[in-house]
User: What shape does this take?
Amino acid sequence: MDAKLILKHMGKFSWLLIFIPISIYYGFYTHETVPTVITTILAIIPLAAAIGYATEELVLHLNPAWGGLINATFGNIIELIVAGLALQRGLIELVQASIVGSILGNILLLMGLSIFAGGLRHKDQCFNARTAGVSSTMLIIAIAGLALPTVYYYAYNPPFQKVQILSDAVALVLALTYIAGLLFSLKTHKHLFDSGEAIKEHEKTSLTKKDAILLLVITTGIAALLSEILVGNIEHAGESIGWSQTFIGAIVVAIIANVAEKYSAITFGAKNKLDVSLEIGMGSATQIALFVVPLLVFLSQFNGYEFTLVFTIFELVCMLFAVLIVNDLSSDGVCNWLEGVQLIAVYFIIAIIFYFV
Assistant: This one.
């Protein structure tokens, strides 16, 4: 496995690898929670980039069906690890906020920055409105699946057991919907999603299948260790600096887990490949809602963590507004830098309110 090649593909994030041993030192040999959390966050960023690179390389070696499954599994692996560990510690509020934050970060911040970056170089950017419409519709369905249990809970105030059964049933439907979406995009109607495939067709693998798997295993293992350190210290660190679990989950955790993905999307946007940027943003948000959330619900059911699909009213309203805004933006197939600024502005308004929650 060529270390120089891996560092090259990690790009501007490679220098942050120095924080891996530093975060491990703070995590195991000190009791200083704030420096531990900061160094761990910085250490996770290059690992996210390396996992993304290994996943892309492995997908190139596989057929589309397996590639889609691998991408779904490892595309949000850090969120899954952090959320799973947080559930074990009973940090339900943080997990739910991180889910909401990941969805908002992908469809507002990631897409907003991508559109803005492209708009600085190109007066108007065009994208496939039909493809964006399919992804947007899937997002609306996903958010409906997350929102309706919350509405039911606040409308009827049912006992917890009934809420848990309801969440399990809805999670199953969401997971089946995600599988149907994979079948649609990878097999029956893959011609609608040619933007990402067109790029892959001109790509050559730089890692062997064995090396890609090895890199994926190593980076995921290190990410799991750092996530354990992060989750073990983040609650006390938040209390020390006056941050709530909600703000930490929705803003801090949600951003660090997707920094590499956001960087890639912004790069594509600046190169006038906005279809790819939008596919990354909406696709990742859909993965969170239809893949990660059901997995967490099932994990909760098996281990008794009491995780349900009941979010706060504010979190619910934020997701609904974000999806409606993006749905309207993607309807005409053309955008400009101002629309990017508008998406970013909505994200920062929400982030400010999360800080005061």
About this structure: The longest strand covers residues 125-126. Residues 195-202 have pLDDT under 50 and may be disordered. The domain at 3-356 is CATH 1.20.1420.30 (A middle domain of Talin 1). DSSP finds 15 helices and two strands in the chain.
